[in-house]
Design brief:
Blueprint (H helix, E strand, L loop, with lengths): L4 H19 L6 H7 L4 H7 L3 H18 L7 H18 L1 H10 L4 H21 L6 H23 L7 H17 L14 H4 L21
Length: 221
């Protein structure tokens, strides 16, 4: 049976991340991944000209999983919590491969830069779905604030071997609370000043979510 584009993309992405988990991200071959999954190599080349294209598609898949079931109403924190955990569920489904990407990113500046941009864009989608503005200077601060939360949560997820991801959920809950207290980007304050992730580090104890690094390095998607 001929796969539609969405089915083809999901199969190829799964094959690539499986290969990354086995061999490391730098050793991934799109041709071999396609063959392993029984997919047409020429079609793979058309849809995925590079490994970066795979990561872009994977990020879109994670966003779709979060946005399709986004709560239409309720407290902003609860809505963001639900969407972020749905994104984490997508990462968890390809855990070994995602961890391989995380291991490779610090040694690959181009990869790290691309992941930074993809992550920031994804945070914008989640905020808009939660009815938090991402326009203007304040909106840019909102995105950076949620990016800091995402960074902290992925860090917790990397070390979370539990089946229910309880540690990850706890880290997310704490990070969202801390973000609201420090950066006020959840929209629960009348203060119109944009959040300042850099200055927030002065008030955060060592076990609290860190601000976004100045070099923009963030975990993937």
């Amino acid at each position: 049976m001929l796969m539609n584009d969405a089915e083809f993309d999901e199969a190829l992405v799964a094959a690539v991340f499986a290969q990354a988990g086995d061999r490391g991200w730098r050793s991934v071959s799109l041709v071999q991944a396609a063959r392993d999954a029984g997919l047409d190599v020429a079609r793979t080349r058309t849809r995925f000209p590079s490994r970066i294209a795979v990561l872009m598609r994977f990020g879109a898949m994670a966003d779709r999983a979060a946005l399709e079931a986004a709560p239409p109403s309720g407290p902003i924190k609860d809505r963001l919590f639900d969407m972020i955990m749905r994104r984490i569920d997508v990462l968890q489904a390809h855990r070994a491969g995602v961890l391989a990407v995380l291991e490779a990113a610090p040694r690959d500046p181009l990869l790290g830069l691309m992941l930074s941009r993809l992550s920031l864009r994804s945070m914008g989608w989640l905020l808009e779905a939660a009815e938090v503005s991402t326009t203007g200077l304040r909106g840019a601060g909102h995105k950076r604030g949620l990016l800091a939360v995402w960074l902290w949560v992925v860090r917790a997820w990397r070390n979370d071997d539990s089946t229910d991801l309880a540690t990850t959920m706890s880290a997310l809950d704490q990070a969202l609370d801390r973000a609201a207290q420090v950066a006020r980007w959840l929209g629960e304050s009348d203060d119109n000043a944009p959040p300042d992730p850099e200055s927030a580090s002065d008030t955060m104890p060592p076990d609290e979510p860190p601000p976004v690094p100045a070099n923009g390095a963030v975990p993937p998607i």
